[in-house]
Amino acid sequence: MLKRLIRISNNLKLKHKLLISYVLVVMIPVLIIGLAVTGYFRQQALDNAIGQTINNVDKIKSQTATLLRVPTDISDILMFNNELKEIVNKRYTSVMELTSAYLSYKDFQEYKRQYREVAGIRFYSANPTLINNLEFIPLDEKTKESYWYQKALLSTSTGWFYIPDKEDNPVHKLSLVRKVPFPEYRTEGVLMIEINQDELNELLRQEPFETLIADEQGYVVAAKNTDLVGKTLDELDFGVDLQNQAKGTLEADFQGEPSNIVIDELRPVSSMNSLKVISVFATKNIVKDANTISLIGMVFISLVLVIALLLVYIISFLTSNRLLRLSKHLNKLALGDLNVSSRIDGNDEIGQLSRQFNYMVKSINELMTQVVEATEQNNQLEIAQKEIKLKMMASQINPHFLFNALESIRMKAHIKGEAEIANIVRLLGKLMRKSLEIGSGKTTFQAELEMVSSYLEIQKFRYGDRLAFQIHIDPDAEKIYIPPLIIQPLVENAIVHGLENKEGTVHVNIMIHLVNDIVQVHVKDDGAGITPERLAEVMQFIRGPEEPERSRIGLRNVHQRLTLTYGEPYGLQITSVYGEGTEISFDLPSGGEQHV
Fold first, then answer.
1. Which helix (H) or strand (E) holds 149?
2. Cross-referenced Pfam families, in alphabetical order (predicted)?
3. In this structure, are residues 107 and 120 in contact, taking their beta carbons and an 8 Å threshold?
4. pLDDT tens per residue across span 82-131
5. What letter does residue 240 receive in the DSSP assignment?
6. Pick from 114, 130, 131, 193: which is nearest to 160 by CA?
7. How far apart are CA 182 and CA 191, in angstroms?
8. Residue 437 in contact with residue 448, Cβ under 8 Å?
9. What is the pLDDT of residues 409-447, one digit of tens each?
10. Cα–Cα distance, 537 to 531 (Å, whole number)
11. pLDDT for res 550
C-alpha cells in the first residue's frame, strides 16, 4: 500500500503535491482544530446546562421531600388515633348514629385547615355500616382492585401514588396511601392523604426547563406545564422509555427536537416506592450562542486558508516547470520502464537529483540481472536435489518382510503342504513383480492397494489370527495418481510395531476418502501404541534434516517423498494412545501428482 501511494505521488505534478501537502498538513488540521474548538464550546454549554439542571433537580427533590414530610407526619399520628379506630370499626345501627359520629370527628378537617400541603384526607374501610361522606369511604370492588390499594395492603409503609379520576370520588392528585391495621378488631383500612396540587406545581413553576415529577406507574403528578399533570410518560413524546430508565443523563428527541434529559429519584421518608424527577431541555437552545461564535470563527479561518492556498498554488506553479521533465522520467520508472534516462542539465539540487536518478536506474538493472541469474541457478539446484532425494528414498523401502514371509511359507509348507501355500506363493510373486515394475514414478490408488492387499494376505498367513485387516476406498479416488509405495510402508509399520507387546488380535484398517478435492488416507491399528515421548521422537526423526534411526526409515521415506512431491502441508500426521493403538494419516490433492 505504501509503495502504491509513493508511485501515485511520483506520478503527480509538483504543484499538485504542494497543494495536497498544504491541504493535508495545514488546511485539514486547522479545520479539525476549529471543529474541535466548536465542539468544545458546544459541549461546555451542554455540560453547564446539565450541571444547572442537576442542581435544580436536587433542589426540587429537597423541596418536594420537605412538602411530603407533612402528610407523612400526619399519617404517623393517625396510625395511633383512637377516635379514628373507634369510628371506622363500630357497627352503626342507624343513619342518625353514623351522622352523629361523623360530625363529632373533626381531625381530618383540622389537618386540612392547618396545613396548606394537604388537599384532603380519606379513610377506606371494609365496615359495611359506613356511608361515603368523602372522608370515610366504604370499600367497593373497584377500589379493592385498584393498583394503589393493592400496594398499600402489602406493607405498613407509606406509598405515593397518583390517584386517577373515579366517577363517584374524584381525586386526581398525588396522594399518600398507607395501610392502618386494627389488631384489636382484626380489621384494617387504608388511609389516603391528598397533596395540594397547587403547592406541588409551585415547586416547578420557576424552573428554566420543562420539569415534571412522575410516580412509579408513570403518571405525571406535578409539572411546570400543568397540562401534563395526570398524563403518563408513555403519552408524552420523549422517544425513550423513561418509566424503566435509571437515574442519570441521556439524549433523546422530545417532541421532535434533540434534547437532554436528566432523571433522578426521590424516595420520601418511610416510603415503599419512589418518585421520578425529570427535567428536559432542548439542545438547540443551549448551544445556539456557541454555534454562532463558532460559525464566525470558521468563516475567518476559511478565508485565511483560501488566501494561503492561492499563494501556495502560485509558488508551486513557478517551481514545477523546472521539474516537469524529471517528473515524467519518474513516472516512466514507476510504470516499469528501466531503460529511461534523465538528461536534465545543471549543478543545482534538481541536476544532482537527475544524475542520481540515472545511477539508480543503472543499479536497478544490474541488480535485476543478478537476481534473475541467481534465481535460475537456485531453481536448477533445487530440481537436481529433489531428483536425487526421490531416487535415493525410492530405493530405501525395507524388503525384510519378504524374507520373513518366505521363511513362514517354508515352515508352513514343511508342516502342511496345502493349496494355501500355493496361494501365498502366488501373492508373494505378485507383490515382488509389482515392486520390480515400479519405474514410472507414479501409480494409482487402485494399484497401490492391490500391493497392500497382497502384503496383508502374506502377513495374515504369517501371523494367523493375531492379524485382521480391512481396506476401504471411495470409488472416485481409485484412479487418482500417487507416488508408488506410499501406503505399504505405513501398513508395514502398523503390523510390525502394532504386534509388539500386544496379546490377541491386532486390527489394521486402511481408509481412503475423497472430500472436497482432497484425498484423505488413514492407516489405523489397535496395537501396542506409542508413548507421547516416543511419538515426539518419531515425529522429530521423520521430519528432521538428519537421517533417523533405521527402524523409522520407511516413515521418513514416505514423509520426505510426500513433502517433496506435494509441498510441506501434505506430510505425515501421527496420533497414538499408548496401549490403544496408532493412526497415521496424510492428505493429497485430488489433481494428481503435482507439486503444490
1. helix 147-153
2. HAMP (PF00672), HATPase_c (PF02518), His_kinase (PF06580)
3. no
4. 999 999 999 998 999 999 999 999 999 999 999 999 999 999 999 999 99
5. S
6. 193
7. 13
8. no
9. 666 666 766 666 666 766 776 666 566 556 546 788 888
10. 10
11. 46
H/E run at residue 195: strand 187-195
Sorted by sequence, the CB contacts under 8 Å of residue 169 that are 6+ apart come out as 122, 132, 134, 137
Residues 336-343: contacts with CB under 8 Å, at least 24 apart: 338/364, 338/365, 338/368
Pairing type for strands 443-444 and 481-482 reads antiparallel
* Residue 255 DSSP label: T
Cell match 493535508: residue? 24
3-state per-residue secondary structure call for 344-397? CCCCCHHHHHHHHHHHHHHHHHHHHHHHHHHHHHHHHHHHHHHHHHHHHHHCCC
Four-residue CA torsion sign, 175, 178, 179, 184: negative
- The matching CATH number, chosen from 3.30.930.10, 3.40.50.10490, 3.40.640.10, 3.30.565.10, for 442-589 is 3.30.565.10
Whether 453 and 431 have beta carbons less than 8 Å apart is answered as no
- CB neighbour class for 472 (10 Å; exposed up to 12, middle 13-18, buried from 19): exposed
CB proximity list for 368: less than 8 A, separation 6 or greater:
338
Count of C-beta atoms within a 10 Å radius of residue 199 = 16
User: The C-alpha cell of 574 is what?
Assistant: 501421527
Give the percent of the chain with pLDDT over 70.
81
Place of cell 405498613: 156
Q: DSSP string spanning 448-505?
A: HHHHHHHHHHHHHHHHGGGEEEEEEE-GGGTT-EE-SSSSHHHHHHHHHHHSTT--S-
Chain centre distance of CA 412: 69
Spans of all domains in the chain: 13-337, 442-589
**CA–CA distances in Å: residue 530 to residues 175, 213, 221, 228, 536:** 83, 77, 81, 82, 10
Residue 223 burial (C-beta neighbours within 10 Å; 0-12, 13-18, 19+): buried
pLDDT in tens, 251-299: 877 767 787 888 899 999 889 999 999 888 777 766 666 667 667 777 8
Write down how long the chain is: 596
**How many Cβ atoms sit within 10 Å of the Cβ of residue 461?**
19
